[in-house]
Write a structure and sequence with these properties.
The protein is of the alpha/beta class. 42% of the residues lie in helices and 14% in strands. It is built from 15 helices and ten strands. The chain has a six-stranded mixed sheet with strand order 1-2-10-7-8-9, with helices on both faces. The chain has a four-stranded parallel sheet with strand order 5-4-3-6. The longest helix is centred in the middle third of the chain and has 15 residues, at 196-210. Bound molecules: ligand AN7. The site of ligand AN7 has 20 residues, from α4, α9 and α13.
Length: 356
Amino acid sequence: MQLTRKGLWGGIIREYREFLPEIEDSAITTLHEGNTPLVECVNLKPIFGDLRLMLKYEGLNPTGSFKDRGMTMAVSKAREEGAKAIICASTGNTSAAASAYAARAGMKAFVLVPDGAIAMGKLSQAIMHGAMVLQIKGNFDEALAIVKEITKDYPIKMVNSINPFRIEGQKTGAFEVCEHLGHAPTYHFLPVGNAGNITAYWKGYRQYYNEGMIANLPKMMGFQAEGSAPIVLGHPVEHPETLATAIKIGNPASWDGALKARDESGGVIQAVTDDEIIEAYKLLAGREGVFCEPASAASVAGAIKMKKEGVLHDGDTVVCTLTGHGLKDPDIALKSSEKPIKVPADTAKILKLMGF
Ligand code: AN7
């Protein structure tokens, strides 16, 4: 057997160079993000029947979320332009990715997060990667407004998805889905928070369509949490609420991009309740062995809802992006499950509990 079978995946900038804005070689900052698996569901037939349900498992990116795709682009570009520092507002995952890529690029990262409303895993990442973590007494939307103000006047590069290079990087998720399937799916489901990712996937699908790489386009299906559903309501939500803290956003920056994706593709943007999110979250972990964070499960909760409403049919290929890894938020995992059993170190007692 050969010791090296295939070359190391070079990260999305090197692998998709011809489809992305140019970047100087010396500025490329990568952790070999991308090339995440498309996992087919094998145990959900009772719910989904004979449609093909595929999970784009973005939790397997280097920092555990899809944000790495956009961050490799944004940080590489910032480095090319000679920036010394980057800044973002975040519900957690953007801050984790920004901190890691900044560390690698030798830049300073400043991250503004809502105090008490970000998952423990994400906070620990930002701290470990050496970012200055500023926990503000306010929500994500307020943090983003401050970041916008600061970057107007100070020489710090903003790496929220208002930065167009973030969207460019994230569109590669759509490229991979098409390559792994050999075609575009019938439907693509995504959780929607700041709405950058649904904007990016739609951009990616359209680009592959225009280049003749795929023959059809998917319908884009975005799902917000019911207590944080500004796009569904048609107006910003001042005090967004949901246990899916990643998508606890009341005034999405890429609002227009999300509407465009919905309308041009013939898709929908709807809401799912926190209960529906947790149900999908537990179903994926318990029946498919795939652990995602709660916000990510909004995509599958949306697919379950659409199946129940008769929108999805046998023969359809349905892709759900699982945006972040379950280990990001161990608190919710433990709170939403049965407690471990405490037992003395006694074989007989243990066997009894095991049912023997
Ligand atoms: C797991 O980290 O906005 O609709 O600051 O972490 O593109 O915003 C995270 C968003 C879905 C929503 N799933 O994506 C941030 C942040 C997970 C996320 C979303 C986020 P967008």
